[in-house]
Amino acid sequence: MNAGLSGETSAGALRRAAWVLDQPASLVVLEVGANDGLRGVDPDTTYANIVKLVETVRRTRPEAKVALVQMEAPPNFGKDYTTRFHATYVRAAETTGVPLWPFLLDRVAGVSRLNQGDGIHPNEEGSKVVAATVWAAMEPALRAFANP
């Protein structure tokens, strides 16, 4: 089930977590915070929200495996911010012990031929690259369910 909302921040995801986790789940993939980076949210706030999200999943669905997807901030807030934002995900994964999956838009972000006119969202060709990136992380996780 895809429970994402366009424009949602990590705080919004945290507010909706209990409702989303009302569904059974074996694997919960947290792909949150991209809009935090677009809006310049303090990376410490994003970190705290991610950690709380992982805790919420573990409390609500203790049988579920959890994975976190790396997000990146655009360079317009400066190198210090983008470095801190990137590190937020590494730190959250280390703190919670969840695997950190690669940035969804790896090899797509900033490549105009792979994005729609807004320069942010992948077009059809870019979406194929995103799907391959996600599958490279997801396939081993799904195989682990088949071969416990």
**Full CATH superfamily name of the largest domain:** SGNH hydrolase
Q: What's the total count of β strands? A: 3
Q: How many helix segments?
A: 5
Principal-axis shape equals: globular
CATH C-level name of the largest domain: Alpha Beta
Going by helix content, strand content and strand pairing, the class is mainly alpha
Mean of pLDDT: 94
Polypeptide structure, described:
By secondary structure, this protein is mainly α. The chain folds into two domains: about 100 residues, SGNH hydrolase (Rossmann fold, 3-Layer(aba) Sandwich), CATH 3.40.50.1110; about 40 residues, no CATH class. Helix content is about 50%, strand content about 5%. It has five helices and three strands, in the order αβααβαβα. The protein has a three-stranded parallel beta sheet, with helices on both faces. Helix 4 links the parallel strand 2 and strand 3. Helix 1 packs parallel to helix 3 and helix 3 packs parallel to helix 4. The longest helix has 23 residues. The protein is globular. The mean pLDDT is about 95.
